[in-house]
Design goal:
Blueprint lengths: L2 H29 L3 E4 L18 H7 L5 E4 L2 E3 L3 E2 L10 E5 L5 E4 L8 E8 L4 E4 L2 E7 L5 E9 L1 E7 L2 E7 L10 E7 L5 E7 L2 E5 L7 E5 L2 E6 L2 E5 L4 E4 L16 E6 L2 E5 L5 H4 L7 E6 L2 E6 L2 E3 L3 E5 L8 E2 L2 E3 L2 E3 L6 E3 L10 E2 L2 E3 L2 E3 L15 E3 L3 E2 L2 E3 L2 E4 L6 E3 L8 E3 L2 E4 L5 E3 L10 H8 L6 E4 L2 H14 L5
Parallel strand pairs: 1-2, 2-5, 3-6, 4-7, 5-8, 6-9, 7-10, 8-11, 9-12, 10-13, 11-14, 12-15, 13-16, 14-17, 15-18, 16-19, 17-20, 18-21, 19-22, 20-23, 21-24, 22-25, 23-27, 24-28, 25-29, 26-30, 27-31, 28-32, 29-33, 30-34, 31-35, 32-36, 33-37, 35-38, 36-39, 37-40, 39-41
């Protein structure tokens, strides 16, 4: 090869290498995560930098691409927020509070029409919202549903953390469709909502009418509800449900929430007694943790107290039983009615509670008021259509006029109740296959009548023993809840 030709080839290779290096640098620059800032003093004509922030959260979210963060400065934002696009695996779009500051998404200037949320995540994946107050959305209109947050359609890897959701209230009557939600997640697509995480949040001071504070329903496959606090609410704390009510067109095979965990949460004062003008003076129907037509859920290490009922494995559906759910290591005490409730509501539905396990829970002095039929519901309550369930290794502390176990009807079969430790400060009581007959007060007769509890034990203890337990549990609670 001639020297000139060789030199030309060398220069060409060097130029190509330079071009490749420049192109790689451009790609790296394009892929670097970007931070956008939002401030009440900003402008949507700015570039979103910390020195030139946007003013509205939606503007920043519209600019964000996978991997980007939107950081919101403290203050009150009278805005409805909607996530417009998805992130990608390893590149979440993250909406966060600016470190050390508290942004508030406030609905006090919004007139609610229909089903309306302050924050909406609709058919998007790989997104996070972290550190916001979401509050003050009220409805006064018929057949409306104010919501703090709505997670709808399909989507995966959605995280809600460290949010404080409160003062979401429907002020209509029951006849006018009183309903609302702090967090409403409904899987309405053919692909489920999955990898949904709700953690470190508080939900309180709500009026949700006939609905729940946190609803997980429809086609949801895989969720965690962990380390949250739900308190001072009008109705149910959290529900894992079939979608036949909220998503009636969903495929029967997948239209129910499943494969989830509810753990290490605190629930208290989830009760209809907060609004007697709506429910009447003697309604105690709220359940703090409720699986209603859901499946494959682990409910573990939660604390529930001073609510209408503690934990419910109940079905209000004729399509979906509550099934394959495990309730273990929970503390339920001082609730108005049942500690743990299983089976259908009487004479209402037929699906029941199937293949569930209630293990190693502590139930203490619940049933402070009579049930709907003037009966004592029982620390452990089994109504209709309970089949193939296991209730073992629980510690059950009955109050002076309490029932340790109450099975209401002749329906249900293949249930196993055994290896439980029963305590009473008065005469122990059980009822088997009756709503309100005279209770059984002899442990041996109970075992013979029920065919259960062959290896369980009973101790009669002093009121002081109960007082010491109660003090111990109260000390274990966080000082601020």
């Amino acid at each position: 090869m001639r020297p000139f030709a060789l030199l030309s080839l060398v220069l060409a290779v060097q130029a190509l290498a330079c071009t490749a290096k420049t192109f790689a640098t451009i790609i790296q620059t394009q892929q670097k995560p970007h931070k956008y800032y939002v401030s009440l003093t900003g402008s949507d004509t700015n570039n979103g930098s910390i020195n030139a922030p946007f003013q509205t959260i939606n503007t920043a979210l519209n600019h964000a691409v996978p991997g980007d963060q939107v950081l919101v400065r403290g203050g009150t934002y009278h805005q409805e927020v909607k996530f417009p696009k998805s992130g990608e695996p390893g590149k979440y779009i993250s909406l966060q509070a600016y470190p050390g500051e508290k942004p508030v998404i406030d609905g006090s200037n919004i007139t609610v029409t229909g089903w309306q949320a302050l924050v909406t995540i609709n058919n998007v994946s790989y997104v996070t919202i972290d550190g916001f107050d979401i509050c003050n959305l009220h409805s006064f209109a018929v057949n409306t549903d104010p919501q703090g947050m709505a997670i709808i359609g399909s989507g995966q890897h959605i995280t809600v953390k460290n949010c404080n959701i409160y003062n979401i209230k429907n002020n209509t009557t029951l006849a006018q469709g009183r309903s609302g939600h702090a967090i409403l997640a409904i899987g309405t697509g053919n692909t489920p909502i999955s990898n949904l995480l709700i953690t470190g949040c508080t939900v309180h001071d709500t009026q949700t009418g006939t609905s729940e504070n946190v609803t997980l329903a429809g086609n949801i496959d895989g969720f965690i509800f962990s380390h949250n606090k739900v308190y001072d609410t009008e109705n149910i704390g959290v529900i894992v449900a079939g979608g036949d009510g909220l998503n009636p067109k969903g495929a029967v095979a997948t239209n129910f929430a499943r494969n989830g965990v509810i753990n290490d949460n605190i629930f208290h004062h989830n009760t209809m007694t907060k609004t007697p003008e709506t429910w009447g003076a003697n309604r105690f129907g709220a359940i703090s943790i409720y699986v209603c037509g859901g499946a494959n859920t682990l409910i573990e290490s939660n604390i529930v107290y001073e609510s209408d009922r503690g934990i419910g494995l109940v079905s209000e559906s004729n399509i979906y039983p509550t099934r394959t759910t495990v309730v273990k290591n929970n503390l339920v005490y001082n609730c108005y009615r049942a500690g743990i409730y299983m089976g259908d509501y009487l004479n209402y539905t037929i699906s029941g509670t199937k293949n569930c396990a209630v293990l190693n829970n502590t139930l203490f002095q619940n049933n402070r008021v009579a049930g709907a039929f003037g009966e004592i519901e029982g620390e452990l309550r089994l109504t209709e259509h309970c089949d193939s369930n296991v209730i073992r290794y629980n510690r059950v502390y009955a109050g002076p006029k309490d029932l340790l176990v109450h099975k209401y009807t002749l329906t249900g079969s293949h249930n196993l109740i055994d290896h439980n430790s029963y305590f009473s400060i008065g005469k122990p009581q059980w009822i088997w296959n009756s709503t309100n007959d005279s209770p059984i007060t002899d442990f041996l007769i109970w075992k013979k009548t029920s065919g259960q509890d062959a290896n369980s034990t009973l101790k009669i203890v002093s009121p002081k023993f109960y007082d010491n337990l109660s003090k111990k549990w109260k000390k274990s609670l966080p000082s601020k809840i």
